[in-house]
Amino acid sequence: METADTDRTHDIVVWGATGVVGRLVADYLAGRYGPDELALVLGGRSADRLGGVADDLARRHDDWEAVPLVVGDATDGESLREMTRETRVVCTTVGPYTTYGTPLVEACVETGTDYCDLTGEVTWMRKMIDRYHEAAVDAETRIVHGCGFDSVPADLGTLLVQSFAAERFGVPCETVRIYLEAGSGGVSGGTLASFGEVFEAASTDPLARRTLRNPYSLAPRGERSGTDPGEQRYPRRDTLRSAWTAPSPMAPVNERVVRRSNALLGYPWGREFRCTEVVPTGHGLTGAVGAGAIAGGLGLFKTAMSVGPARSFLRRYVFPKPGEGPTRSETERGSFTVRLLGRGIAGDGSFTVEAEVSAGLGPGYGATARMIGEAAVCLLRDDVDSPLDGGVVTPASGIGLPLVERLRETGFTMTVDEPARSND
Q: Are 47 and 72 in contact (CB under 8 A)?
């Protein structure tokens, strides 16, 4: 294990800069920070394609006459170590991470280089935790998974709710419910490829199947059990909003990430803390029908992805390819709203805390580019509020509220307060 060198040449390497999301991350960072503020480098396996991205950045941003390039192979550990030895933070968008991510994590841990990614691949995250967490702690290196739409809104939103509850009421919320209220914008080919990798792993690997069955599978060793039953699987009338809800497709990763945050921070929210992520569908018969339709569609999708031939057909003929995605203008027309409600009990009775995380950008592209870009800057500048110096961590446990402040400055809405009235 190597000691971090404070004289490293590169501040942030955007690894995978020729992909759709990688281009957006590089464009965002170049537009927000000048070359006198940030030693930005574009990384990937094709010098020609990287050069095209660099030329595009120079045309769009006057200050950036030239952006350095680093060429490497995601499967070649030595070339990755050569890159990470010269880098303070690697910001990677190269997925599926199950296929391409492990050598880069290993290189970052060995060379003491901070790292952030966009993964929602629970089975791979579990492997990285088991293999590299202790080594990353020893190296005082932060490996931060889930720095995009998976799982920043859920994880930092929960941190907002719990921080407010602790300050206002002196105790945390016992329950936090995460509602995916609205969203528009395409799903990337990389995201769907990641879904495919999770189901592929579950079809052949008993550990992967156990990881998906256990709501606490991302918790530290020895802490992988608890009272929370895990994600909602069927339509349900919500007790906090008195409305119908459907299962969320993102709940299997986001809920586990939130539980890992609680554990890594030392259980400030209690060992019996529960969190659930759902999709609200409204009231009455219309809400019930909508919840049933979403639950049924999600169930059919999971069934198809669990069958080898159907999974292969969808991945080959239906899903967009990794690297494919919308135009820049299309990403800027999207939006999303995630609302969180926390419920707790203080000395004078029960209380409710409400938070909102939203942005006028497509969640999978434009908003995600800002989330991971600012996460990388937080790591670079040690702008973190965390008791942890290293490890395989989450956005809330490894970076914390400074990332909330940075996202607010970029136009995100991230608010928290007591609701004025019931949010029906």
A: no
Same domain, 68 and 203: no
In 214-355, which ranges are continuous DSSP H helix?
251-264, 284-306, 308-313, 328-332
- Please say if the pLDDT value at position 424 is more than 50: no
**Do 282 and 312 reside in the same domain of the chain?**
yes
**Same domain (yes/no): 85, 206:** no
297/380 same-domain check: no
pTM equals 0.93
Residue type, 174: E
Share of the chain above pLDDT 90, in %: 76
Q: Is residue 269 part of a domain?
A: yes
Distance CA 33, CA 406 (A): 13
Q: How many domains does the chain have?
A: 2
Backbone angles phi, psi at 353, to 5 degrees: -125, 135
Provide the residue range defining the domain that includes 178: 152-362
In a domain, 399, yes or no: yes
Average pLDDT over all residues of the chain: 91
Q: Does residue 1 belong to any structural domain of this protein?
A: no
195 and 174 both lie in a single domain: yes
Per-residue pLDDT tens digits for 272-310: 999 999 999 999 999 999 999 999 998 888 888 777 787
- Whether 2 maps to a domain, the answer reads no
> What does each C-alpha distance from 238 to 123, 179, 202, 277, 294 come to in angstroms?
29, 11, 30, 11, 15
Specify whether 348 is located in the same domain as 373.
no
Peptide bond before residue 96 is cis, with ω within 30 degrees of 0 = yes
Residues 176, 161 contacting (CB under 8 angstroms): yes
CA-nearest of 160, 151, 142, 97 to 124 is 97
Confidence band, pLDDT 50/70/90 cuts, at residue 423: very low
Q: Which residues contact 13 (CB under 8 A, 6 or more apart)?
A: 41, 42, 43, 70, 83, 87, 89, 90, 91
DSSP characters for 346-394?
ETTEEEEEEEEEEESS-IIIIIHHHHHHHHHHHHHTT----S-SSEEE-
Give me the pLDDT at residue 172, please.
98
Lowest mean pLDDT among 222-226, 325-329, 338-342, 352-356: 325-329
